[in-house]
Design goal:
- It is globular and about 70 Å long.
- Helix 9 crosses helix 12, helix 10 packs across helix 12 and helix 11 crosses helix 12.
- It contains 22 helices and 8 strands.
- The chain folds into 3 domains: 190 residues, Alpha-Beta Barrel (TIM Barrel); 77 residues, no CATH class; 122 residues, no CATH class.
- A hairpin with a 4-residue loop joins strand 1 and strand 2.
- The protein has 448 residues and is α/β, with parallel strands linked by helices.
- An 8-stranded mixed β-barrel has the order 1-2-3-4-5-6-7-8, surrounded by 5 helices.
Length: 448
């Protein structure tokens, strides 16, 4: 096969920064984060359509070094849409086979040439999924021996059909990925039907439970945040942190992460508080609210934590870019990003939470109504997560904040990298690899 070249004719001429990147989390049955679907959306040109999106994907592949895939997905897997043009091109080899899952779009017409090409890429180590499967078909049957994951849109099929499809593809020894899972009920149904992976934001929506009590560690963190607001002396704060051994150890581990780059190892809470300062301690406490504290999950990646940390950082970076020199505003922006998910964390309506926590009117308006400056940047961050805005709507959001698509793309990748660093130092990636879970022998099946 020809070596890939950045100037390959098949690569579109658009610059990668003409697009914004949506990163949608994919979880396993234990609700651990195992990867992201990366959706490249046109933020500057005409109406969105599948061809635009694939064109954007191709453009980013061609500029893989500029994208910095590791900064976007960390040590997890990236799921990326591909069509026939992308599959048949040489520049697909810019994507590392051990880091990506290639999703063959449902619009792809299966030909002998395409089957041959997919076979070549499987032999080269690439993992394939079939996207938006809602029925059995001849095209799917031709590709089935070569793919390891079947993605089913749970919004497009009823429960009986979903069960039928899951039984059919499980018999073929395929991994099942349910996409557009928006409620805990949908998640539980899909678990019952044998699905292995789940894509959607059900984990970021509050499940209201009457009489729910906060975990002891969360109460400790909330009290520390109160002490910081009251500006008590460091000794009292350290004494309170020491009440929770797990919290103490986690804080010391975080202080010694590469994010800070301290030359000397920090080995005491008092030293950590002096080095960090109260502003950073407050930030870590806000993030730690989202950490898993159950013993059997203490070292797993919490998707809610990563989403909250990344969202907070993105709002902070946007504010620093468009309101330079206003440190207080960037601090508020970070807090808004973190707090925008506390309803999911505590299982309470946001209105109820805000009656118990004193916040300014501008933070309240941002959290409840998505209005005001902080509400606008929160809308922008949420749009990049779900990719539910048209290019025109995205352009309107960017223009309203006087932020260029290129600047926004840069800030996105910085926030993703920061969130990945946080998660790496608070948990571990599940040991099982996506490509190993589906079993071996797919290529052999094709050859037989």
């Amino acid at each position: 096969m020809t070596e890939p070249s950045p100037d390959h004719d098949a690569a579109p001429a658009h610059h990668a920064h003409d697009f914004f990147l949506a990163r949608q989390p994919i979880l396993n049955r234990e609700q651990e984060l195992i990867g992201y679907e990366l959706l490249f959306r046109n933020a500057a040109f005409g109406p969105a359509n599948v061809n635009d999106d694939v064109s954007a994907t191709a453009s980013v592949i061609a500029h893989a070094s500029e994208l910095g895939l590791n900064n976007v997905i960390g040590s997890l897997h990236g799921f990326i849409n591909v069509d026939a043009t992308v599959l048949m091109s040489d520049f697909i080899n810019f994507l590392p086979a051990d880091k990506v899952v290639l999703e063959i779009l449902e619009t792809v017409k299966v030909t002998p040439e395409l089957v041959k090409r997919v076979n070549e890429l499987v032999r080269a180590g690439y993992v394939f999924a079939l996207d938006d499967v809602i029925t059995e078909s001849e095209d799917i049957a031709q590709l089935l021996p070569l793919v390891k994951i079947i993605k089913i849109d749970v919004m497009e099929v009823d429960a009986s059909k979903l069960l039928k499809l899951s039984v059919h593809f499980k018999r073929a020894q395929k991994m099942l990925l349910a996409e557009k899972v928006e409620t805990v009920e949908q998640f539980r149904d899909c678990v019952t039907f044998g699905f292995d992976y789940f894509q959607g934001y059900y984990f970021a929506k509050p499940v209201i439970l009457q009489g729910k009590k906060l975990e002891a560690s969360k109460i400790v963190i909330m009290h520390i945040l109160t002490l910081l607001v009251r500006n008590v002396d460091n000794g009292e704060i350290v004494r309170y942190i020491k009440r929770d051994v797990a919290l103490s150890l986690t804080l010391l581990r975080l202080v010694n992460t590469p994010v800070y780059g301290f030359m000397k190892h920090i080995d005491s809470l008092g030293q950590a508080l002096i080095v960090l300062g109260r502003r950073q301690l407050k930030r870590w406490m806000q993030i730690l609210l989202f950490a898993n504290t159950e013993k059997d999950k203490a070292h797993t990646l919490s998707p809610l934590l990563i989403l909250a940390a990344t969202r907070g950082k993105m709002l902070e970076l946007i504010t620093e870019r468009i309101r330079p020199g206003r440190r207080k505003m960037s601090e508020i922006a970070f807090t808004v990003g973190i707090m925008s998910l506390v309803d999911a964390l505590f299982g309470m309506p946001m209105e109820t939470i805000l009656t118990q926590i004193t916040v300014s009117a501008e933070i309240r308006d941002a959290l409840l109504f998505r209005t005001g400056f902080y509400g606008e940047i929160l809308q922008l961050a949420e749009a990049t997560e779900k990719a539910d805005k048209t290019p025109e709507q995205m352009k309107e959001l960017l223009d309203g904040l006087q932020l260029s698509a290129e600047d926004f793309y840069e800030l996105e990748t910085q926030a993703f990298e920061w969130g990945n660093n946080i998660s790496t130092n608070m948990g571990h990636v599940p040991e099982k690899k996506v490509e190993a879970e589906a079993g071996a022998g797919n290529v052999a099946e094709q050859d037989s």
